[in-house]
Amino acid sequence: MKKRRTRMSQTNVNLAVQEQSLDTPGNGKWHLISLKAYELYEQRGREDGHALEDWLKAEALVQGTTE
Length: 67
Fold this sequence. Notes:
Elements: H1 10-22, H2 29-43, H3 51-63
Helix pairs in contact: 2-3
Protein backbone atom coordinates (compact mmCIF):
# COMPACT_ATOMS: atom_id res chain seq x y z
CA MET A 1 0.00 0.00 0.00
CA LYS A 2 1.37 3.40 -0.97
CA LYS A 3 1.63 6.13 1.59
CA ARG A 4 -0.32 9.19 0.71
CA ARG A 5 1.63 12.40 0.98
CA THR A 6 0.00 15.72 1.57
CA ARG A 7 1.51 19.06 0.83
CA MET A 8 1.61 21.88 3.31
CA SER A 9 1.98 25.42 2.13
CA GLN A 10 5.08 27.27 3.29
CA THR A 11 2.85 29.44 5.49
CA ASN A 12 1.39 26.41 7.24
CA VAL A 13 4.86 24.97 7.76
CA ASN A 14 6.08 28.25 9.24
CA LEU A 15 3.07 28.46 11.56
CA ALA A 16 3.56 24.88 12.70
CA VAL A 17 7.22 25.56 13.48
CA GLN A 18 6.34 28.75 15.38
CA GLU A 19 3.65 27.03 17.44
CA GLN A 20 5.95 24.14 18.24
CA SER A 21 8.73 26.45 19.44
CA LEU A 22 6.37 28.69 21.43
CA ASP A 23 4.28 26.01 23.10
CA THR A 24 6.51 23.11 23.95
CA PRO A 25 5.14 20.36 26.20
CA GLY A 26 5.15 21.50 29.79
CA ASN A 27 5.72 25.13 28.82
CA GLY A 28 2.26 26.40 27.94
CA LYS A 29 3.38 30.04 27.61
CA TRP A 30 1.90 30.40 24.15
CA HIS A 31 -1.47 29.23 25.46
CA LEU A 32 -1.37 31.57 28.47
CA ILE A 33 -0.41 34.51 26.27
CA SER A 34 -3.21 33.77 23.82
CA LEU A 35 -5.77 33.60 26.64
CA LYS A 36 -4.56 36.89 28.11
CA ALA A 37 -4.55 38.58 24.68
CA TYR A 38 -8.14 37.47 24.12
CA GLU A 39 -9.06 38.78 27.56
CA LEU A 40 -7.58 42.18 26.64
CA TYR A 41 -9.54 42.12 23.35
CA GLU A 42 -12.78 41.47 25.25
CA GLN A 43 -12.02 44.19 27.81
CA ARG A 44 -11.74 46.68 24.95
CA GLY A 45 -15.21 45.70 23.75
CA ARG A 46 -13.99 43.35 21.00
CA GLU A 47 -12.66 46.24 18.95
CA ASP A 48 -10.66 44.99 15.97
CA GLY A 49 -7.28 46.33 14.89
CA HIS A 50 -5.27 45.84 18.08
CA ALA A 51 -4.20 42.20 17.84
CA LEU A 52 -0.46 42.86 17.90
CA GLU A 53 -0.78 45.37 20.71
CA ASP A 54 -2.87 42.87 22.72
CA TRP A 55 -0.40 40.06 22.05
CA LEU A 56 2.64 42.09 23.10
CA LYS A 57 0.93 43.37 26.25
CA ALA A 58 -0.25 39.86 27.12
CA GLU A 59 3.23 38.48 26.53
CA ALA A 60 4.70 41.07 28.89
CA LEU A 61 2.05 40.32 31.52
CA VAL A 62 2.57 36.56 31.33
CA GLN A 63 6.33 36.92 31.54
CA GLY A 64 5.98 39.29 34.46
CA THR A 65 7.70 42.28 32.85
CA THR A 66 4.79 44.67 33.47
CA GLU A 67 1.74 45.00 35.69
